[in-house]
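re the bet — no i am not wrong, look at it urself. input seq straight from the record:
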Amino acid sequence: MRDALRAIFDESDAGVHAGLAYQIGGRPECVLPQDAADLTARDAWLGQVAKIRFHPDYVVVAQARAQALFERAASESGDSTRVCVAHGELLTPLLVGHGNASPTGVGLTLHHTWGVPVIPGSALKGLLAHYVAATYGSADAEGAESDDLRAPYRPPARRNGRVVEAPGSAQRVLFGAPDVDGATPSTACAGRLRFHDALPVRVDADSAFLMHDVLTPHHANYYAGASAWPNEYEDPVPVPFLCVRPRLTFHFAVEGPAAWAEQALAWLCDALAEWGVGGKTTRGYGRFAFDLDADRRKTEQAREQRTQERLSEQAPGARWQWLVHRASEEQLAEWARVVFVARSQRSCRVVSSLARAPLDPDVEDAALREALIGAGYVAAWRQGRGRDGARLNRGADNLRALAAAVDPQPVAPEPFWRAKLNAVDPTDFDALKKLADEARQPGSGWPLPGLQELLAALRATVGKRPKPGKQAVVEQFGRFVKERREAARAPEQG
């Protein structure tokens, strides 16, 4: 079987599984070289494995996977689960899984199905846990002047292999928590985030993804435990191995509650850029560069497209009920101004998600009007205020004009007595007394509701300890209103 596989590896470098080629494709003389010829054969074998290119089917799969994650990233925000994504360009060689078994003694983690480079989600989670603990939870953390600031990010404390102190609150959410030794009840919990494996994207079938590298320890005996001190006369022992070549683009994804997933992804990108991932990071391996702004713009475009598709499929009434429910009242007031007052745009054009949809403007305007009325905004605006007491950057008259434009109902003329009451200062007792004298005159036409409001205004001006003269005026007018009220009830009793 091994000989048959080696024959396949010898024939082509396209579509070959790099993991199999690296693990079992080497001939015995390449794995355990005995002389210079064997060393030359080993270098040739590793060079051949490094020429293996992406399988054409993987190119399609990588694009589909990235698109699927972006569509999930475009799902609804809030407290729901969200997938946050980022693309990172590998700046330096990458060596993940160097402790794995390997014919050369230096392992490499490759995808078990496609044989392409992969950074396991567990490696990314471990990197982020270390980065958060060192950057924010350590006593040396920048800006961490007090224990209160560091506490949420502290990892679990261990002593003699046992957990003696639970991690901080942020650590519990991000990575979960183990049981504290002797604690009752259990303190263990799972983290709320999921770290997806990072795989190459934006690849083509003509590009290779591995490179031939060499590790050259100069004091192999000393590192192996020899008692003799290292010296400058020992021969270096080159150890060739394979690693991932730079300039590949990897796709990173973190899934969980929207706010936590977004923050975790930002920290992860910082860790990958500053620390790197995998082996030999102290030598600069495993460093990435990110353009998070570009990824956010792409995510927003995907979200906009998904929203447009969903809205276009709904009936006009349901569509505008959903939009009105999500928009702020200030935005709704602006839509009402543009569509119903200024008439500069139709309703299906004020929302960018609907701008390109083939919709009937008259039907959409009517649906927006019904949604605003049904949600109670028009009734509140008609009273010159925001719904639920919200403060808007518009005056009361402006809101009343919006309500009249959205729902142009005929408004009854204001009664004369209301205009007279509104024309005087409600704290001016003399002006109110003058109105009371006028209302008592025969033929004044003041109805009972007007008289009652005028009496209430007079009582409000005199306060709890009125002067005798004012109190007499209020009592006299009160008796007049009582007589009018009893006279109005007389026909009903008869």
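see?? The chain has a mean pLDDT of 81. told u. also The chain is about 50% helix and 10% strand. so pay up
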